Amino acid sequence: MKNTGWKKLFYVLTITYFVFVLILAAALYLMSNMYNQLNMQHAETMKNEITEILYTQETSDLPQVLSAFKAENNVDLVVITPNELIYSSMPTADFSVLNKTVNQEQISFYGAFTVEQDGLTYQVWTAVYKINSEQFFLIIMTAFVLAVLVLACIIIVLLLLVFRNSIKPLSRLRDNILKLRSYQLDEVAAKANANEYDRLSQELSEFTDDLQEKMDVIGTQYSQLERELQKKQEQHISKINLVRSLIHDAKTPVSLELLNISQLKKNDGNIEENEQRLQNMEQNNKALLADILDIMKILNELTM
Fold first, then answer.
1. What is the biggest distance separating any 2 CA atoms in the chain, rounded to whole angstroms?
2. Are residues 149 and 222 in the same domain?
3. Which helix (H) or strand (E) holds 166?
4. Where are the membrane-spanning stretches (predicted)?
5. Domain finish residue from 119, 153, 187
6. Do residues 139 and 236 both lie within one domain?
7. Please, are residues 204 and 190 in contact by the beta-carbon 8 Å criterion?
8. Cα 283 to Cα 183: distance, rounded to the nearest angstrom
9. What is the pLDDT of residue 1?
10. Is residue 179 one of the residues assigned to a domain?
11. Residue 174 lies in a domain
């Protein structure tokens, strides 16, 4: 659940980052249009406020009220009726002359309009100057800097999320693999708060524990086999020595047989001596046969 939460947060922050970037790019691209639109709205607001003054104020109070309005706002204003001049901030009240003398680069709107109030027609000429561009761009740049700071914070948070949930688990996994390669099985460990990489590290830790147990079993079995092999080798050496001893013992009956045969050849006339020698030869043959059987039995055991 925690792993899913950080992923959702990562996606939300990433989308927010790209939305901020798109907004900033659009704002920079449309900055000139925004400035012109703002000037148009400002001019429309000035016209509405002038109309509101003409609707709500007495004719005798209009010069003072319009003068105060002119002082508070960056506008030029001329108000006349068919019979008299009500207020003028310009050197002339001739609208055609005023239209020719205005500096259009500094003005967002200029022109004349009429207002009907209590049967009296007011003719109004006004020139609304553009909003201070330096102030406008200062506000824009302040907003831009704040947006950049927000983007920087988003990037920092994203980097922290990636480092905490991807880089660090990968580092732990790498360390565990290196420890496994160097047979440091006891030092292979996994984190309790696991994500995909930590779970992989946990599986690696479980694998190393199982491997350690199997290696311990194999070591025990190897030691047992080694002891059994040593025991068999000792038995084998003992049997070899026994065979050598039997072979050595078998030489004596053979030597006696050869001696008796030689004496039988020399003493053909003495029957009793010959019979005694034959009995001795029979006994020697039995002893020799017993030794041969023992040797064959031992040899059979060695080959099994």
1. 194
2. no
3. none
4. 9-31, 136-163
5. 153
6. no
7. yes
8. 68
9. 42
10. no
11. no
- Please state whether the predicted TM-score (pTM) of the whole model is above 0.85: no
CA separation for the pair 187, 245 (Å, rounded):
57
Place of tokens 């440091």: 184
138 has a pLDDT exceeding 70 = yes
Which of these, 108, 131, 120, lies nearest to 79 by C-alpha position? 120
Bridge pairing between strands 75-80 and 107-117: unpaired
Instruction: Write the CA distances from 155 to 1, 6, 8, 297, integer angstroms.
Output: 24, 15, 16, 87
Least trusted range by pLDDT, from 7-21, 184-198, 236-250, 274-288: 184-198
Tens-place pLDDT, residues 107-137 = 888 889 999 887 888 999 999 988 877 777 8
For residues 135 and 55, what is the distance between their CA atoms, to the nearest angstrom? 32
Residue 48 maps to a domain = yes
Domain range spanning residue 299?
Answer: 218-303
Three-state secondary-structure class, residue 24: helix
Q: Which of these three, 138, 153, 168, is where a domain ends? A: 153
Task: Let me know whether 6 and 123 are in one domain.
Answer: yes
Q: Which residues pair with 80 in a beta bridge?
A: 85, 123
Distances (CA, A) of 91 to 153, 245, 292: 56, 148, 152
Domain annotation covers residue 198: no
pLDDT digits (tens, 9 = 90+) for 143-161: 888 888 888 888 888 888 7
Higher pLDDT, 240 or 256: 240
DSSP string, 93-126: --HHHHHHHS-TTTEEEEEEEEEEETTEEEEEEE
**Shared domain check, 255 and 128:** no
Higher pLDDT, 255 or 92: 92
- Average pLDDT over the chain reads 77
Cα–Cα nearest to 76, from 93, 51, 53, 55: 93
